[in-house]
Amino acid sequence: MTAQLIDGNALSMQLRAQVAADTAQLKAKGLTPGLAVVLVGDNPASQVYVRNKVKACEDAGLHSVLEKYEADMSEADLLARVQALNNDPSIHGILVQLPLPAHIDAQKVIEAINPLKDVDGFHMASAGALMTGMPGFWPCTPYGCMKMLESIGYSLKGKHAVVIGRSNIVGKPMALMLLQQNATVTICHSATPDLKAMTLQADVIVAAVGKRNVLTADMVKPGAVVLDVGMNRNDQGKLCGDVDFEGVKQVASYITPVPGGVGPMTITMLLVNTLESAQRALSEKS
Ligand code: NAP
After folding, report:
1. C-beta atoms surrounding 84 within 10 Å
2. Strand ranges for 116-159 from DSSP E
3. Which of 5, 161, 206, 244 is deepest in the core (most CB within 10 A)?
4. Per residue, what are the HEC states of 151-199?
5. How would you classify residue 30: left for phi > 0, otherwise alpha for psi between -120 and 50, otherwise beta?
C-alpha cells in the first residue's frame, strides 16, 4: 500500500479562498477583520513566522498589524500593549508570538489577552471552552489537523486515535478535539514505556513531538491515518517531521508530508479564527 497524501498546501488554498470571500462579505457590511501580531525580540524563526502570518492576512484581505519590540521590552509595557489591543475595535485577533524573552512571563501575557480575541486559542478560557465543548477558539495547529481529517471525509466515531505529545498547544488540545468527534483517544509522552504497543493499535496517529523518526513503519497498523505535526531538520538541514515519511507511507492509508502538510494549515486556521472573531463582533453589534 502507498498512502495518499493529505496536501496541506492545497487544502490551505481552498480554505484561504473561502476566508477571502467571507472577508469581502464582511467588508461590504463595513467591518474588516483585523489581526494584531506582536513580536518581542529578534528570534529568527519567530520573525519568519510573523511575516508569514501577516502576509497571509493581507493576501486574504484581512487587516493586519505587526508590532515589533526590542528584546528588553518590560513585561509591564507588553501587558499595556495587549490591553490597548484588547480595547482596539479594529482588532479582532491578538497573537503574541512565542517564545517570549525569559524575563517575561508568557502565561501572564497570554492570560492578559481578551479571550474573545484569543485567536491562538492559548488562553485558559479557550482551553476550558475546548474541554467543556463550549464556544471558543481552538488552537490553530490541532484545529488544522481536524480540518485535514475532515477533508478526506474521515469519520472518527469508534476509531482509536493515538496522540504522541502532550503539550498545551498541540498534544492536549488535539486529544480533546479527537475525543469530541467520538474517537477513543490515547495520549503518549516521554514517559510512555512502549510507544510502539500504543501506536500499533491506532487507526489515527498524530505525532507532535519534535524528534525525527519517532514513528517508523513497524509502529503503524496497515491502513492507519498519520498526521505529522513535527518540525525538525534532517542531516542535510532540510525540514522534516517526526515521522519516517518514506517508510510509513508504505503502510498508512493517508499521510501528511513535511513540509507542505500541517504547517500551512496552522496559519490558515489563524485566519479562520480571526474571521470568526470578527463575525462574532458584528453579530453582537446587530
Ligand atoms: P513540546 O512542547 O516540546 O512537546 C513535545 C511532546 O513530545 C511532549 O509532550 C513530550 O513528552 C513528548 N515526547 C518527547 N519525546 C518523546 C518520545 N520519545 N516519545 C513520546 N513522546 C515524546 O512540543 P510542541 O510545541 O507540542 O511541538 C511538537 C512538534 O510540533 C515540534 O516539532 C514543533 O516544532 C512542531 N509544531 C509544529 C507546528 C506546525 O505548525 N506545523 C505548530 C506547533 C508545533 P513530555 O511531556 O513527557 O515531555
Report:
1. 12
2. none
3. 206
4. HCCCCCCCCEEEEECCCCCCHHHHHHHHHHCCCEEEEECCCCCCHHHHH
5. left
Same domain, yes or no: 152 and 220: yes
Residues in a beta bridge with 280: none
Check if 53 is active-site.
Answer: yes
230 Cα to the center of ligand 1, angstroms: 7
Task: State whether residue 29 is helix, strand or coil.
Answer: coil
Q: pTM of the prediction?
A: 0.97
Please check whether residues 96 and 150 belong to one and the same domain: no
Grid cell in block for residue 27: 467588508
Backbone angles phi, psi at 183, to 5 degrees: -80, 155
Q: Position 260: which residue type?
A: G
Query: Which residues approach ligand 1 with their CB closer than 6 A?
Result: 141, 164-167, 169-171, 188-192, 195, 208-211, 214, 229-232, 262-263, 266
> How many other CB atoms are found less than 10 A from the CB of residue 50?
20
Tens of pLDDT along 69-117? 999 999 999 999 999 999 999 999 999 999 999 999 999 999 999 999 9
Q: CB-based burial of residue 27 (10 Å sphere; 0-12 exposed, 13-18 middle, 19+ buried)? A: middle
* CB distance 109 to 79 below 8 Å: yes
Total of domains in the chain = 2
Q: What is the C-alpha to C-alpha distance for residues 256 and 146, in angstroms, rounded to an integer? A: 12
Report the C-alpha gap between 170 and 43 in whole angstroms. 21
- Do the domain assignments include residue 269? no
Write out pLDDT tens, residues 132-173. Answer: 999 999 999 999 999 999 999 999 999 999 999 999 999 999
